[in-house]
TrEMBL record:
Protein name per its UniProtKB record: HTTM domain-containing protein
Record field: transmembrane: 7-27, 68-87, 92-111, 142-161, 196-216, 247-266
Domain of life: Bacteria
Source organism of this protein record: Mucilaginibacter polytrichastri
The keyword Membrane is assigned to this record: yes
Record carries keyword Transmembrane helix: yes
UniProt keyword terms in alphabetical order: Membrane, Transmembrane, Transmembrane helix
Length: 271
């Protein structure tokens, strides 16, 4: 796989993730009001050591409602513009830097409500921006390598930790998750409750799917691609059951980088 093509593909998928996640925030704009669950009046105490520094920079004003809504709209516009500029083949370096800055600001602003998708998104855009600023063949390789390493580490940590938990091995954690009000699904819960082997299979797929993804780069490209397709299906299934749709795009944005290094490793070792 071509290096620049891989880089642009990671950026494209990431931009789609930004559009989806930002649109969801805009549709739930009430959450950012002073009386909302993720108002700045609450979130600004997440980093008390930096509160005075943030205030001096004027971010308190920017992060407060309704100004923060305009920042989200700006972020959405940047992501859409990046996709358009990639389509027509124009340079996007300034747009990447802008998106990186705004993304890091929004991650800081919503610190208490961030999840794994937000953390991975911050890692991906920071690496993409730094790689593009240096603008050399090696800098892009380093950026893609960092993204790959972070993705493999995230999957490995998740999979091997689950492997030590009896609740994951016997399927009981699947039922516990489905019972929750945030990530639960009553219809699927009723279906799984009556079928022991089905919830055992679901646990097995999640645990060993994560582990397999964590070592996917070590396999030849065709096998690696199959593993990544399994990962995509895994994320789609989780998104359907638990509503974690942004995880699909945040983690799958790393897949081109993983596949790129699988191809590179294969050619260096076997050819």
């Amino acid at each position: 796989m071509n290096q620049l093509y891989c880089y642009n593909l990671v950026l494209l998928i990431f931009s789609i993730q930004v559009i989806i996640s930002t649109s969801e925030y805009l549709f739930s704009y009430q959450l950012f009001k002073d009386s909302g669950l993720i108002s700045w009046e609450v979130n600004r105490f997440a980093h008390p050591k930096f509160a005075r520094f943030i205030h001096r920079l004027g971010f308190n004003h920017l992060f407060s409602y309704p100004n923060y809504i305009f920042l989200l709209v700006f972020k959405l516009c940047i992501a859409v513009t990046i996709i358009f500029q990639l389509w027509i083949g124009n340079s996007v370096i300034l747009l990447i830097l802008l998106l990186a800055l705004v993304s890091l600001l929004t991650i800081y602003r919503n610190y208490r409500s961030n999840n794994g998708a937000d953390q991975m998104s911050g890692i991906v855009i920071a690496a993409l921006a730094l790689g593009k600023v240096a603008s050399t063949k090696h800098s892009l390789d380093i950026a893609l390598a960092f993204i790959t390493a972070q993705a493999l580490l995230a999957y490995g940590t998740s999979g091997f930790l689950k492997l030590t938990k009896a609740g994951w091995l016997n399927g009981t954690y699947v039922l516990e998750i489905l019972k929750t009000s945030t990530f639960g699904n009553r219809k699927i819960l009723d279906y799984f409750s009556k079928r022991i082997m089905l919830r055992f299979a679901a646990s097995f797929i999640v645990v060993f799917g994560d582990i397999l993804l964590s070592i996917s780069v070590l396999f030849p490209p065709k096998i690696c691609l199959c593993i990544l397709l399994i990962g995509l299906c895994l994320h789609l299934g989780i998104a359907f059951v638990m509503g974690l749709n942004t995880f699909v795009w945040a983690f799958c944005a790393t897949y081109p980088a993983i596949f790129y290094f699988s191809c590179k490793l294969y050619h260096q070792v076997y050819l």
